[in-house]
Automatic annotation (TrEMBL):
InterPro entries: Gfo/Idh/MocA-like_OxRdtase_N (IPR000683), Gfo/Idh/MocA_oxidrdct_glycsds (IPR050463), NAD(P)-bd_dom_sf (IPR036291)
Gene3D superfamilies assigned: Dihydrodipicolinate Reductase, domain 2 (3.30.360.10), NAD(P)-binding Rossmann-like Domain (3.40.50.720)
Pfam families per record: GFO_IDH_MocA (PF01408)
Provenance organism: Microvirga puerhi
Protein known as: Gfo/Idh/MocA family oxidoreductase
Domain Gfo/Idh/MocA-like oxidoreductase N-terminal: 4-114
Length: 311
């Protein structure tokens, strides 16, 4: 079966990852692109400036991949589901948890697949870490996610607006790994959020987690002001061992100093293979756990104002 898919929002992630992943998968065909700016990739048979026209005109379109900023995802996803399309949601899957719950319900009622994608989870090292941690007690977890916002999000104003999540846009990738691999549920115990004086979203955050394990040291630091080498590391220390380190955003895993996974980037091809499985079985996959931690970090967060940030 070849699924006809349309991309809505043809920005950085759609061009860098979705387009090549769809192109490389013979079970998907890029039938359409809806781009407000009127971008027209050669592969797309149909192009629209208004996604509503795409939903209305292309009756045989099976699915859409929504690659817009999160603030508008719920409205677009709801209309796509109501038009009878399966929906793949870029991360974060919506602007609020209530919106995501609504999409889950509509997908169920319309018998359409809703797929929340958390790309950082699609790494072999992450799967091995989860399997290694099963049944163990984590006594130390240190997440360090530091990158250069000017490099990764050039000119993206939505990311600094309320609902754009600021540094949690990359930080949620770390949290999606944490929620996947941790053997116990993780809660936000403390959250310090640094907001530039001229922005509505944080540029840095320090989080402390709890799992109910007495004396455990569980924390994360996210920072968007890092220049030079970028850091996407998670160190995990279990009672009685082993000592593990996930680095490169989950692509490399060391266990007790030995590299057990070191893969090239295969996240989006894997996302589309998973989408294929879900479409074939008619099952939705709505994982709200990483998103819930972000919501909690904002809910109990202490706001600290820092110097203005200029692009
Ligand atoms: P981006 O480059 O700003 O692209 C988003 C695109 O969405 C815009 O170029 C625009 O494309 C469309 N759009 C913007 N506002 C819209 C609106 N109000 N209604 C409908 N469409 C709108 O952002 P991005 O980096 O691709 O990020 C998009 C999503 O992917 C975010 O949720 C982000 O967290 C996620 N993501 C990004 C990366 C990354 O490395 N950049 C990695 C993984 C996931 P058109 O003009 O073509 O419509």
């Amino acid at each position: 079966m070849v699924y006809k898919v349309g991309i809505i929002g043809f920005g950085k992630i759609a061009q860098d990852q979705h387009l090549p992943a769809i192109r490389a998968n013979p079970n998907f065909e890029l039938t359409a692109v809806a781009s407000q700016r009127g971008l027209k990739p050669n592969e797309a048979k149909h192009t629209f400036t208004d996604y509503r026209e795409m939903l209305r005109d292309l009756r045989d379109l099976d699915a859409v991949a929504i690659c817009t900023p999160p603030q508008v995802r719920h409205t677009i996803a709801r209309e796509a589901l109501e038009a009878g399309k399966h929906v793949l949601l870029e991360k974060p899957p919506a602007a609020t948890l209530s919106e995501l719950e609504d999409l889950r319900r509509i997908g169920h009622d319309m018998r359409k697949v809703v797929f929340t994608t958390w790309h950082a989870q699609y790494n072999k090292g992450v799967d091995i870490a989860r399997d290694t941690l099963a049944g163990r007690t984590v006594k130390r977890l240190v997440v360090t996610w530091k990158e250069d916002v000017r490099h990764w999000h050039p000119g993206q104003q939505w990311i600094w607006q309320a609902g754009g999540f600021g540094v949690f846009d990359p930080g949620i990738n770390a949290l999606s790994i944490v929620t996947k691999i941790m053997p116990q549920p993780v809660f936000i115990k403390q959250s310090d959020l640094q907001f530039p004086a001229n922005r509505d979203a944080p540029i840095a955050a320090e989080l402390q987690f709890s799992t109910g394990v007495e004396g455990a040291d569980l924390r994360a630091v996210f920072d968007w002001r890092q220049t030079g080498p970028q850091t996407w590391d998670i160190e995990i220390d279990c009672e009685g061992g082993p000592l593990m380190k996930l680095s490169l955003g989950g692509r490399r895993l060391e266990v007790d100093g030995e590299i057990v996974a070191d893969e090239s980037d295969d996240e989006y091809p894997q996302i589309y293979r998973r989408f294929e499985e879900l479409l074939a079985s008619g099952q939705s996959e709505v994982d709200e756990a990483p998103f819930r931690l972000v919501g909690d970090a904002f809910m109990i967060g202490r706001r600290v104002q820092v110097e203005p940030f200029q692009d």
